User: Fold Outer membrane beta-barrel protein from Winogradskyella ouciana.
Amino acid sequence: MKHTILFLTVLMSCFGMSQNNENTTDKSELYKNYREDQFYVSITYNLLNIKPNGVNQNGFSSGFHLGFIRDMPVNERRNVAIGLGLGLSSNSYNQNVSILETNNDISYNIIDESEVNVSKNKFTTYLVEVPFEFRWRTSTATDYSFWRIYSGFKVGYLFYNSTKFKSDNGDEKLTNVEDFNKLQYGLTLSVGYGTWNFHVYYGLNSIFDNSANLNGQSIDMKSLKIGLMFYIL
Assistant:
């Protein structure tokens, strides 16, 4: 009887050790492969920063952004990472500078609403973007609600732009105006917990190049985008 009890005790101990080793292996494999926040969708309110005198925004200027960021952890816990990705961005700006074509030349003028009734005046930009992020978070391989702070840099290539002007005197729409900067870049920050994340983009260079002039001066307006960021997988 004693031999039987001893045998069962040793057997249970071996079984327990086997289970612990299996759990450790499973956990190790889980940590080895887990990544976070590789797909993103963002909605922003777009502001024009450093506006020339007399330039104002009106209406709601919105932005919609989506893409993929490859999460590359740099520590064993995998809660610190760098991210590099590719995305698309659409941005509209409602403001009071008319962008019109006259004799194959583009002119920029502040709209005098006492002289003309304007129902819509905006320009829209479409970019392919390459975001780079330094990522810190409180995540684990099994915890899907965690704090995150992602700071970084984003470079965008403008592949299409359009302008719309609607007034009582007529309408005009232009596409691919050459005065827009093809390369646009700025700093980014995303901070939040779980689903909801505050996001800001601070443009470092002008939306327009030096050939765009208003009252004899370059239009050096930069983009400031404030909104929400949603990460998936």
Observations:
- Helices lie at 2-33.
